[in-house]
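Structure (tokenized):
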């Protein structure tokens, strides 16, 4: 069973004086099929923690292991491949490329290693159907509503069957109705896929729909 294990992780950033400590001895565990909401005010270190979990930045101390592997022991090219294959990202801004169709945007994670296989193209079609965008598959982002763009981002994040899905305020730019729809869709597919999901948010309504909650304050989880 795939697991995420974070042990005594701290993160400091250099300054002209004393280093700025953003995270202090953060530890958490997550198993396949589980989801977790991390709450906290702006500036508390939520985005920094998400960057560490997504291997976009390395901790100053402590360890992060995904499926028993410490990705920060890998060479840069291996780390990039690990990230692309094992971790999916959903951001508050959908980051869809404006010149590409929904299908092409969903296939972007597969293009990092060349042309997508027939299997991944079929997987993209399947995910687009599951998020309710079959009729919009050839449309570009400008032709979609905010909720549709976020649903396309959900499909893209799941293309490579990631072990871990990281979502940073995934409904932050949506109205209440669309936010609820996207949340339900995300949790439904996450359970079907049995991936691990961590959602960073300051929205209690969103957090209350997840299995687990924790709060990040002053660089520490409580």
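Design, position by position:
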């Amino acid at each position: 069973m795939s697991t995420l294990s974070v042990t005594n992780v701290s993160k400091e950033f250099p300054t002209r004086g004393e280093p700025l400590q953003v995270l202090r001895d953060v530890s958490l565990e997550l198993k396949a099929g589980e989801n977790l909401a991390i709450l906290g005010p702006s500036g508390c270190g939520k985005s920094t923690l998400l960057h560490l979990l997504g291997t976009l930045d390395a901790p100053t101390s402590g360890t992060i292991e995904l499926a028993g592997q410490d990705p920060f022991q890998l060479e840069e090219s291996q780390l990039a491949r690990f990230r692309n294959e094992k971790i999916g990202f959903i951001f508050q801004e959908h980051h869809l490329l404006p010149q590409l169709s929904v299908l092409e945007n969903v296939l972007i994670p597969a293009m990092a290693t060349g042309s997508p296989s027939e299997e991944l193209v079929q997987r993209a079609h399947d995910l687009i159907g599951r998020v309710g965008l079959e009729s919009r598959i050839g449309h570009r982002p400008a032709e979609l509503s905010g909720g549709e763009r976020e649903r396309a981002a959900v499909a893209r994040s799941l293309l490579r069957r990631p072990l871990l899905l990281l979502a940073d305020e995934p409904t932050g730019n949506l109205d209440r109705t669309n936010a609820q729809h996207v949340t339900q869709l995300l949790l439904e597919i996450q359970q079907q896929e049995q991936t691990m999901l961590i959602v960073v948010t300051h929205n209690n309504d969103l957090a209350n729909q997840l299995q687990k909650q924790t709060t990040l304050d002053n660089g520490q989880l409580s």
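Reviewer-requested clarification: The chain has a mean pLDDT of 93. Residues 176-193 form the longest helix (18 residues).
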